[in-house]
Design a protein that fits this description.
Elements: E1 4-12, E2 16-23, E3 28-35, E4 47-48, H1 50-68, E5 71-80, E6 87-88, E7 98-99, H2 107-116, H3 118-126, H4 135-145, H5 147-152, E8 155-156, H6 159-168, H7 175-178, E9 183-184, E10 189-190, H8 192-197, E11 216-219, H9 222-228, E12 235-237, H10 242-249, E13 258-262, E14 266-272, E15 284-287, E16 294-298, H11 305-313, H12 321-329, E17 339-341, E18 361-363, H13 371-392, E19 401-404, H14 411-421, E20 425-428, H15 433-445, H16 452-459, E21 463-466, H17 473-491, H18 494-513, E22 519-523, E23 531-535
Parallel strand pairs: 1-5, 13-19, 19-20
Antiparallel strand pairs: 1-2, 2-3, 4-7, 6-8, 9-10, 11-12, 13-14, 14-16, 15-16, 17-18, 20-21, 22-23
Helix pairs in contact: 1-6, 10-15, 11-13, 12-13, 13-14, 13-17, 15-16
Protein name: Carbohydrate kinase
Domain Carbohydrate kinase FGGY C-terminal: 259-445
Domain Carbohydrate kinase FGGY N-terminal: 7-249
């Protein structure tokens, strides 16, 4: 009996790892997921045990393959969280915990580099704005505070590279990961100019060789086979970081194509023929390792938590989302003139501008404003932020936007994003797009597909299309103009507003630490004599 050919895709996210076995036409044959811990030894730190991550991956590989049954695996590939510092020694052992992309210990160093010009150099060469979780600032931070750890390190391996190393024993990375370290994204090679300009020549020894994402990077070793149940010698493709891998899973591989993610945070990415975003735009530029193609990305902090919060504060949190959608649909587009600035994240905003003091607001309210209008304004505010990102990235008005993430599962969200941005939206219903993206790389690496476009077409795209309503174009154009104008007019007040928030919290904390003082009140009893009584303040109704 002929066994079903299949590929194994692994996605190692920040809080969970997933292994999925797919048939060559994209059918899920087996899947397994496991959580991984984020350790926070100090409030500004975020670390993971690298061996714990590998153990979780090995367990999910075994479980997914068991569920798939008697299949013929033709190859495997890995994607995962990017950035951070994952350092191993000469023997391939971790020199310490992995520092994650959301680690904040190097924030003061980022500010210093912004003042002395090194941040601008990083942006110029790599195409990406500097942030605390980037490898160059983390290496300096570690060298100053734990020099023995850096001295003992031999190679930096990003998360997916660490997993592939455990599978194959080969140290390597791909251009998408290196784009956030020392890569010249225009040339596709490590930049000696950047290393020299940062004074980091001593760190060049830590950089692994670059391999194209759609090539065989190594084969499963006997040790890895014992831990995972995979066959010895199984080809393992290089893979890529999760952001572009998700785009590939959506079928976004050619210049001019666009995709967006609406989850806990948001994201807009456009495939370009080389970097083109202006230098003052806080983009993330990721090389695809295919010719000179890059993905230029803007990643706003505002996403679906805005909707969760708005449902709660309008007193509708007991309703299912389907009922909330009916309330929102009952309100006309434009939300009765109400605007919502969707900057509700406690850490501010990072795209399309950077402001750690940014805050959310409903604007243009009156006593006639309804809960439905407040909610619709939140949906539209998120869409207006996505529209601004698309405009700044040069996404054409007629370009189709592939949309995924938890928010995309709502048809109402897709309709509003299409109407507000003026661009057709295609929603994907496939749950593990990063896995499908690296599965496509396996097909290319093993010769089962001639190129990435053919590979994604073979695995399927399963999209549902939403067209913008042309009758709403003028309304949303006017809305977008006012949205940016009132946002920018409020920006210079955000720092003082944030100070008010801190002062209020501090006052509240102090009040809980000590009882309120009693007030002495002189009362005049009917007899005409005076009597002194004491009582404590009571809250007003």
């Amino acid at each position: 009996m002929t066994r079903t050919p299949a590929v194994l895709g692994i996605d190692a996210g920040t809080t969970s790892v997933k292994s999925v076995v797919l048939s060559l036409d994209g059918e899920v044959l087996g899947a397994s997921r496991s959580t991984v811990r984020i350790r926070r030894p100090l409030p500004d730190r975020a670390e993971q045990d690298m061996d714990e991550v590998w153990s979780a991956v090995a367990a999910t590989i075994s479980a997914a393959c068991d569920e798939a049954g008697d299949v013929e695996l033709i190859g495997a590939a890995v994607t995962g969280q990017g950035d951070g510092a994952w350092l191993v020694d000469e023997d391939g052992r971790p020199v310490g915990p992995a520092l994650l992309w959301l680690d904040g210990r190097a924030a003061p160093r980022v500010a210093e580099w912004g003042r002395d010009g090194r941040g601008a150099l990083v942006r110029e060469v790599t195409g990406s704005a500097l942030f605390p979780g980037a490898l160059p600032v983390l290496l300096e931070e570690l060298e100053e505070n734990d020099p023995g750890l850096v001295r003992s390190a031999a190679t930096h391996l990003n998360c997916k590279d660490w997993i592939r190393f455990r599978l194959t024993g080969r140290r390597a990375t791909d251009p998408s990961e290196a784009s956030r370290t020392y890569l010249d994204v225009a040339q596709g090679t490590y930049s000696h100019r950047l290393l020299t300009g940062l004074g980091h020549e001593r760190f060049e020894r830590l950089l692994p060789p670059l391999l194209p994402p759609g090539t065989v990077a190594g084969h499963v070793t006997a040790d890895a086979a014992r831990e995972t149940g995979l066959p010895v010698g199984l080809p393992v493709a290089t893979g890529m970081v999760d952001t572009p891998a998700g785009g590939v899973g959506l079928g976004v591989v050619d210049p001019g194509q666009v995709y967006a993610i609406l989850g806990t945070t948001a994201f807009v990415g456009a495939v370009q023929e080389g970097p083109r975003a202006p230098a003052d735009l806080p983009v993330i530029t990721v090389s695809l390792g295919e010719s000179d193609h890059v993905v230029e990305c803007l990643a706003p902090m505002n996403g679906t938590p805005n909707l969760d919060w708005a449902r709660q504060v309008t007193g509708l949190d007991a309703l299912e989302w389907e009922e909330v959608a009916r309330i929102v649909r009952a309100e006309p587009a434009g939300a009765g003139g109400v605007l919502y600035l969707p900057y509700a994240g406690v850490s501010g905003e990072r795209a399309p501008f950077v402001d750690t003091d940014a805050s959310a607001a409903w604007l243009n309210l009156s006593v006639s404003t309804t809960p439905g209008q407040l909610l619709r304004a939140v949906y539209e505010g998120i869409a207006l932020s996505l529209r601004e990102c698309m405009d700044l990235l040069g996404v054409g008005e007629g370009a189709t936007v592939r949309l995924c993430g938890g928010g995309a599962q709502s048809s109402l969200v897709c309709e509003i994003v299409a109407d507000v941005t003026g661009r057709p939206v295609e929603r994907s219903t496939f749950a593990e797009l990063g896995v499908r993206g690296v599965a496509a790389l396996v097909l290319v690496a093993t010769g089962r597909a001639p190129d990435l476009r053919a590979a994604t077409e073979r695995l399927g795209t399963d999209t549902h299309r939403f067209e913008p309503d042309p009758r709403l174009r003028a309304l949303h154009d006017a809305q977008a103009t006012v949205f940016t104008a009132v946002r920018d007019a409020n920006r210079h007040h955000w720092a003082s507003l944030r100070d008010l928030r801190k002062a209020s919290h501090q006052t509240d904390q102090e009040a809980t630490r000590r009882a309120r003082p009693a007030h002495t009140v002189v009362a005049r009893p009917p007899s005409g004599t005076s009597r002194t009584t004491t009582h404590h303040d009571k809250e007003l109704p």
